[in-house]
Amino acid sequence: MADSGKRKRTEEAEGGDGDCVEQGQKPQPLDNGGLLGVRTELTPAFSFSAFRVEKVLRESAREKIIFLHGKVSGDSGDEKDAVVILEKTPLQVDRISDLLNKKSELKLQICNDIYSTYTLYPPLELNDVKTTIVYPATEKHIQKYRSQDVYLVQETGDDYKNITLPFLQTQSFSIQWVYNILEKKAEADRIIYENSDPTNGFILIPDFKWDQKQRDDLYLIAICHRRGLKSLRDLTAEQLPLLRNILQEGQEAILKRYSLPGNQLRVYVHYQPSYYHLHVHFTALGFDAAGIAVERAHLLSDVIANLELDPLYYQKRTLTYALRANEPLLKKFLDAGKC
Asked: What is the pTM (predicted TM-score) of this model?
């Protein structure tokens, strides 16, 4: 329900994966400065030559990101909606010397005594913009990225049973892309770690929001193998072995692969999540990642401790979270006089 990305792995619960190249094509390795990634088997068939911007949905100068809604013209003359997200990538410490060489151009903007401000024009290979594309996009995708007012909802256990769960059961949230990962039909070469137990196992994989070029903004997702667990509300003491595996084995895998210890990781669950198959977020502790606000992120260590105290803790607990103005679930709460 709130926040960023693509096909979620940009957290897209609301639509399909879009036009893709055929599955089965061999993934192509990427040079990520020692942190390896691949071009996945599901690569959007998209070209900016056919893209026309319709509207700026949202922008943030602080985050250096902009969300665009546009139309893509097909060969037959028909047009389909697309959402394009442009984001300036972080500076890479190990490439600073390349940035400050003679190939970069400096243009003076202001000079006052010992202080000067310039615009630096780096070489093309150091001037990349991360581009995320949702295509074809539905109206739900467009609304997802539009700037809107947000409202806090206090959802009791009964509210979940009587309002939220019935609403979710009427919605068609496509999570086929999740099953593609779990079944190794897509992104298999991106898997960092797997516990293959069907009940208490999971797959650990880099989130698409992380370009894997530096550890400062490390972001991985643990996706549980077990189906039928939608969110925090479904967790009981029965899932403690799964949650402990994710926390312990996920931290160990990240330490081994990226040399980042567990006490420098933020490990948490979203509620509401952006897609309804249980998953856990691993981010670098120093990274100000989207979705870490107190009204959405629940530390996995706290979740485990709460379930150890009360096996039905999340069946009964009142959970507070934010909903955007146009979200149908907010209207359900308003109609019930709960918000």
From this structure: 0.71
